[in-house]
Amino acid sequence: MYKSIVPPANGLRRCIPFSTLLHTSSRTFPSVVNASARTTWNRPFRYPNCTPSYASRYSTMPTPTIKLSSGYEMPQVGFGLWKVANETCADTVYNAIKAGYRLLDGACDYGNEKECGEGVAKAIKEGIVKREDLFIVSKLWPTFNDPEQVAPVVKKQLGDWGIEYFDLYLMHFPGALKYVDPSVRYPPGWHYDGKSEIVRSKTTIQDTWRAMEGLVDAKLAKSIGISNFQAQLIYDMLRYARIPPATLQIEHHPYLVQQELLNLAKNEGIVVTAYSSFGPASFLEFDFKHAKALVPLMKDDIITSIAAKYGKQPSQILLRWATQRGLAVIPKTSRVEVMAQNLDCTGFDLEKEDLDKITAKDSGIRFNQPSNYFKTDMMWIFG
């Protein structure tokens, strides 16, 4: 059931699911609670038919945010920057911001942070956004997990982006590697020699986390979090953390739901961000046999039938399956039209039976295991 409402800010109408209105706050119009996350519409409304372009139509769609334990609001739908080519990255970031994205998810290991910064600088220079409108995320590569290396590499990354602080900074993977000086090779990758040698550091996660907390103290990062961590590491971290992780970023798609880990995060007040929301699609170029053997989620009969039911694209259904269950998502694309489609993944609700059908596809199939990229017995993140 849908009801047409008129926001007082500009008088333009937008259809909101009635189930959403049930959670509307009298203080914030409208404010919705999405699963366990508090989600606030913080951008002006625009009626869907008032502009001819799909991309421009949704560039002013309201962007839901999730409140972190650190007290900051994080956009629920962001733009991922993994595998965005250097030669097109600046334009891609600029176009993403222009399309309405406010969260940009980067990392040292992606090797494109300078170009990301160029795209941000262009958007700010043209008055599309101010720095404070953006939520910029980056990550600490395991090579820099030694406590004395954390702040220096963060300052380098901030310099590459051309900004003074990260809104969120994550430990990219658990497990420290031997330090490689950026003047020797940057980003350093997994191998100490740049070829095949994996050399682990003796630094503990606790030592690294203390240095991460120091980033908040030094105002180099507003919030800190973790990525690719499993349950026992999180439980252990919560025993010693002065500043608990605000977010957990994990591989999450219908082939790998990780429901127990999601339950843990919810119980501990940790917001989960899903990466690789489209499953094997992100990994086909690496010639992973198990990725090629699976039906692409965009062509899966269940996903496509649900998409037809709601008049949406399969990508929107996959993203809504995550966001409706309280997760943040970080899809990426180089196509402006698809940027807009992906961003428009919170303005409709899936029926519970459809959510359950998608969740039932869970097969425990993981793609982002380091040993899938190269042969090694020295670096098992997920045992």
From TrEMBL:
Keywords: Carbohydrate metabolism, NAD, NADP, Oxidoreductase, Xylose metabolism
Organism field: Pseudomassariella vexata
The UniProt record lists the keyword Membrane: no
Domain of life, source organism: Eukaryota
Similarity remark: Belongs to the aldo/keto reductase family.
GO molecular function annotation: D-xylose reductase (NADPH) activity
Pathway where it operates: Carbohydrate metabolism; D-xylose degradation
The protein's name in its UniProt record: Aldo/keto reductase-like protein
InterPro entries: AKR (IPR020471), AKR2D (IPR044487), Aldo/ket_reductase_CS (IPR018170), NAD(P)_OxRdtase_dom_sf (IPR036812), NADP_OxRdtase_dom (IPR023210)
Domain NADP-dependent oxidoreductase residue range list: 77-361
GO BP term (any one): D-xylose catabolic process
NADP found in the keyword field: yes
